[in-house]
Amino acid sequence: MSGIIVARFGGDEAANSQEVIKSSNILLSNPSRRYAVVSAPGATPESVGVTDMLYLCHSRHTSHENYDDIIAKITERFDEIITGLGISFNLNAEMSSLVKSINMGMSLDYIASRGEYITAKIFAEYLGWPFVDAQDIIFFSRDETPDKEKTFHTAAHKLSNMEHAIIPSFYGTSDRGDIKTFVRGDCDSAGSLIACAVHAEVYEKWSEAAKVFTADPSVVPSPEVIRNLTYMEALELNYASMNLVTDNVVLTLDEANIPMRIASTHNPEDPGLLISSKLPEGSNRKITACIAGSRNFTTVHIRKYGLNKDYDFNEKLFAVFARQKIACQLSLSGIHQMSVILKAPVFDIRRNQIIAEIERELSPEEVSVEKGLAVIVIIGEGMGTVKGTFSRIFDALVNAGVKAKMIEQGADQQNILIGVSDNDYAASVKALYEELILN
C-alpha cells in the first residue's frame, strides 16, 4: 500500500468560508491526505449553487439577455469565502476572465467548469498547496468516456513530484483539446481517476451526512449503522435511490482494488462507511447488510401472448423508453407478460404517447399502468446461499399483513427485490428489519 489518500470534497463542503476551513482542517489532520479534489460552492438557504448560476449566465448570453446580476451573485459567494479565509486572492481578475469567456461564446462545458476552477485555486491559496488544473491531467476519449490510460499516465507523472495538490473536479480535456465536463453530479469520477493514477491506499468522499443505516431511519427507530459494504452491494442500493456510488466509480476503483471511504465533515473521527471490492477480514458482518427502499414507482404491464417467442420483443420495448430518455429500474418477464418498473416524472407527462408507441411497435393484447409501487431491496453477500431466506422474508411479510406484488433475486445472489404497495412500505421494512437484522 502506498499510504496515499485522495480526498474529495463536494459542493456542500465548499459552500462558504466555514465549510472550506473545515475541509482544509481535515486535509491537514492527516499527512497521508496528499491530494484533494474539490467542487464548486453548492447551494445554500440563500443561494443556488455556483455551477447552476454559471449555466444560467451561459443561457442568458445565448438568449442575448443581461446576466450582470448573476455575475454579481457569483462574485458575492466567492468573496465571502475569500474574506472568511483571510487570504489574498485576485477575484476581480478571475471574474473578468469569466465574463470575457462568456462574451466570447466559450462552450457551456468551459463556462460550467469555472466554478471548480476558481474554488480549487482558493483552496490552494489557503492551504499553500500547488494548484493542478484538471484539464492538464484528466482526459476524455472520443466516445466522451474517461480516457483512463492517458489520464493515469499523465496524472501520475504530473503528481509524482508533488507532496500535495488541489485539483478541480467535474471536468477534463476532450479528445479535441477543449474543456469537457463529467455528467452533472458525477464529481466522484474525477476523484476516483486521480486515486488510481497515484495508486492511493483509499479514496475518501467527504460529505455532511455519511451514515448509512441497515434500514430506513424514517421507518425504523435507531437502526444499526453499516460500516462495510462491497462495491456490488453499494450498487444494489441504487435501486432504493441511495446512490452511494456510480457505476463509473465502481468500475474504476474496483479494478484497482482501491477502497472508498464515505466520511462526515461534521464528525471526522468517525470511521464512516468503507466500500471495497471484498469485505475486510473480521468485519463481523451479518448475512443481511441492509434493507432499503423507495416509494412512488410506476409499473407498466404489457400483455402479449407468446412474447417469450418474440426474439426482439425486449429490444423494441426498451427502445420506446430509450427514445423518451426514460430509465427502467427493473423488468419482470413471464411467458405472456412483461412488467417494467420505472420512476420518471416525464412518463406521466408523455404517458399516452408512450403507450401509443408500445401499441404500434409491439401490438400487445393489453397495456396497463399501475402507480403506487414501493420497491424494497434486501442486500448482503452470499444471502442467496443461506437456506430459508425466502421463507423468512415471506413469513415476515405475511405476519405483517403485507401482500408482495413481486419478488426477484439477482443472479449474483446478493440482493432480493420486493415490490409492495406504497401503503405497505413502512410495515414491510419494519417486519423485514426485525426478522433479518435484529434476529
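Second entry:
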Amino acid sequence: MKIAALLRSAALVTAVALIPATTATMAQVDGRAGPEFAKLFAVFQRVKASYVEPVEDEVLIRGAIDGMLAALDPHSAYLDGSDLQRLETMIDGEYSGLGLSVIMEDGAVKVISPFRGSPADSAGVKAGDFITHLDGRLIYGGNLDDAVAQMRGPAGSAIRLTIFRPGRDEPLEVDVTRGVIALEPVTHEVAAGNIGVISVNEFSANVGADVFAAWQEILKKAPGGRVNGLVLDLRNNPGGSLDESVALSDLFLSSGRIVSQRGRARGETMLYDAETVYPGDMAEGVPMIVLINAGSASASEIVAGALQDHRRALIMGERSFGKGSVQSLLPLGKDAALKLTTARYFTPAGKSVQEGGIKPDIAVPQLSDPDMALRAKYQTRESDLRGHLINELGIKDEELEADKISDPRFKLTAAELEEQGVKDFQLHYAMETLRRTTQSTVALRPAPRAAKP
C-alpha cells in the first residue's frame, strides 16, 4: 500500500523532521463544537446552491480541509494524489528534472535550495530565487503541483526559467537542461592538511550509516589514517527523518541527551539519548566544525544543537532556519495522509530552536557569494512564515537580529576571493580554522598558488 511504504521510509526532503505515527490518538469532539459544524455545513449548502458556477463537493471539502490546516501552522498539510506521488518520488531517490526544492510563498514559486550538482545548481539557480515563468508562461498565482509537474520532464530536455532575484532590478532568464536527479544525501572528501569534509544534503533513510561509511573512506584516503579535523557541512539541508538526525548525532556522542520531543498527546513526549544507535564517538579526539546557514532546518538543527550543547563541535556559519516542531504522518485511508505538527523538540540544554534557530559559535558570512548582502536582506526563516508556532520559552527580538558590527576578518570581496581561488568562503574558513588547531600548522597549509603572469 502507498501509505504503508511512506510510513516505513519516513523520508521527506523538506523543512520538516518527519516521523511515522504508529498510533493516532483520536480526540473526542467537544460537544460545544456542534454549532461550529453547523456553520460549516450551512456555508457548504449556500455555496452549492448560490455560487455563480456549479462546484463539485470534492473541491469544497478539500478547500475546507486545507483551510483548517492552514489555520494551524505552515507545516501541517493534507497529502493525497500528486502530493503523495511527489513524496514517493523523493523517497525513491531518483527522478528526471531540475533538482530543486521549492515552496509556494504568497502565490510565487520560491527556491528553498538547489540540490548540489543538479542541473539547476549548475545553471546558477540560487536559494531565495522566485520562479515567475516557465518557457515564457506565467506561473505566478498558480498551483505548486502544476509548476513542479512542468519542471519535471525527460532527461536531456530543456526548459527556460524566468527568475526574480531579490535585490536585482531585472529578471533573469536561465536555460536549464533536465537531468536524472539521483539524490545523494552524503558526499565526502579529504582536503589539504588531512581535513575530512562530509556534506549531508538531506536526512533521508540510512543517512547515519552513510556518514559512518564516509568517515571510514576518509580514514582510508588520509595518509597514515591520520585525520586532523572534520567539517560536517549541513548548509542548505532542509531536514528529513528525525530518527536519522538522532543516528547522525550519536556517531559523535558517547553519552547524554541528543534531543527531546514534547507533545500534547499521549505518546508524543519522547527522549533520545546517545549510545542507542551507535556506540562511542567514531571520530574521538578529532576537532570538528559544523557548518550551518539559513537553509539548515529541522533535522539539521537537531544535529547542530546536540553537538553544540555537548561541546563536541564548533558551530560556524549563519543562524539556522529555526524550525523546532515535529510533524507526524497520519494515514487517512489507502491514498491520503495527514502531515500534522504533533510536538516540539528541544536541544540537550533544553533550548527550543523554534523561531530563533541555532546561533553559530562563530558567525561567518558567505563572502564568496556576490549577492550575499542582497540575499540576506530577503532571506526567509521560520519566524517569517505566516502562522508559525511561537517559541514557548520566549525569544527577545534583539536575539533574532543580525550582528551589524563589521568584522575585520571578513573584508574580502567575492571578486578578490575568486582571484585567490576561493569558491566557498565558509568552507574555506572552517578548514583554515581546523588547520590552525594542529601542532604543525605550516606543514598542513595547502601549497601556495602560482603567481599569474
